[in-house]
Amino acid sequence: MTAHLPPPTHTPDRRPSRGALAVFGERVLENVIRLSGVSAIFFVLAIFFFVFREAAPVLVSDSFSLKEFLFSVAWYPTSDINVRYGILGLIVGTACVSGLAVLIAVPFSLGSAIFIAEFCGPRLREGLKVVIELLAAIPSVVWGFIGLTVMSRLIVAVTGAPVGVNVLNGGIILALMCVPIITSIAEDALKAVPDSYREAALALGATRWQTVHRVLVPAARTGLLAAVLLGVGRAVGETMAVLMATGHAVHIPSSVLDSVRTLTANIAAELGEASVNSEHYRVLFLTGVLLFLITFVINLTADLVVRGVRRER
Amino acid sequence: MAGVNTVVARDLRLAYGAREVLHGVSFEIARNEILGVIGPAQSGKTSLVRCLNRTIDFVTGATMSGSLEFEGEDVRKIKDVFSLRRRIGMVAPLPVGLPLSIYDNVAFAPRCAGLRDRSALNAIVERCLRQAALWDEVKDRLNSLGTALSGGQQQRLTIARALSHQPEILCLDEFSIAIDPVTTMRIEDVLRELSREITIVLVTNLVQQARRLADRTMFLWNGEIIEVGVTQAIFSDKARDRRTYEYVNGIFG
Amino acid sequence: MAREPAVPVESAGKFRETAAGRGHRRTEALVRGVFMTMAAAMVLPLLLLVAYLIVKAAPVLSLEFLLDVPRRGMRAGGIWPALVGTVYLVLGALVVSAPIGVMAAIYLKEYARDNAFHRAVNMAVINLAGVPSIVHALFGLGAFVYAARFGYSIVSASLTLAIMTMPVIITSTREALNAVPHAFREACWNVGATRWQTIRGVVLPNSISGILTGVILEVSRTAGETAPIMFTGAVFFKAVQRGDLLPYGLNDQAMALSMHLYTLSTQVPDVPEALPYATAVVLLGTVLTMNALSIALRFWLRSRKRW
Question: Measured in whole angstroms, how far is the alpha carbon of residue A266 from the centre of its chain?
Answer without folding.
Answer: 19
